[in-house]
Amino acid sequence: MRPLESQSGVLVHSSADRRLAVQHWLLSTLRDPRTGIREWRATGVAMLPLGTLFSAIRLPGRLVLTLIGAHSMPSGEIDAALAEMLGGAPVICDPRYQRYYVLMPASTPATWHMAADEWAEVEVDVMGRGRLLGVPKLSRTEPLPLDSYWSVPMESAAVLGAPLTAARFIAAARHLMEPEQL
To answer: Could you tell me the pLDDT band of residue 144, with boundaries at 50, 70 and 90?
Structure first.
């Protein structure tokens, strides 16, 4: 499908085109992208290596809920709040273990190593090279009881979270946590 040209002369890509581009971009982290496609078909989640195209920050659910004040909010409202607070950064939710994974530039673990040590006390993990992340297929955008889904879908290939925005989010949540939660 060819991109459409708007009246202003700007090319407009359909959501299907962008989704396909995101899929190709994510799967390009694998030696054989067909492996990821098979995993998505079989389990709904592909194990992708971190550190080449992107990294991830693992946030415990309690940290996210503390900042959003969402202990009784439906997950759709939590997802919308996350999208706003993290500037649209792509986020994967793992409801089974109550964790959120914010996709970040691949360089984040190297540049954040000192902050990452500090954040370990609140179970924030900056994940990079040598680690794998379970990435749900792109159509999983609705909460499921135990299955990972895109809490904030990845809108376009290579559009990741802003490190400063994520750092501010973590610092604000950590500040609001009760001392016994630390």
So the answer is: confident
pTM equals: 0.90
Compute the Cα dihedral for 116, 118, 121, 122 and give only its sign: negative
Residue 77 parent element (H or E): helix 75-85
Residue whose C-alpha is closest to residue 109's, from 130, 136, 85: 130
Residues 6+ apart with CB under 8 A from 33: 24, 27
Cα gap 150→130, rounded to integer Å: 23
Residues 6+ apart with CB under 8 A from 77: 70
Q: What is the residue-averaged pLDDT of the chain? A: 91
- Determine the angle formed by the axes of helices 163-176 and 61-68, rounding to 10 degrees: 80
Neighbouring C-beta atoms of residue 120, cutoff 10 Å: 11
Distances (CA, A) of 122 to 21, 117, 146, 155, 181: 35, 10, 23, 29, 8
3-state secondary structure of 124: coil
Q: Where are the domains of the chain?
A: 4-181
**Helix/strand/coil for 92:** strand
Amino acid at 179: P
How far is 102 from 82, CA to CA, in rounded Å? Answer: 10
Distance CA 81, CA 77 (A): 6
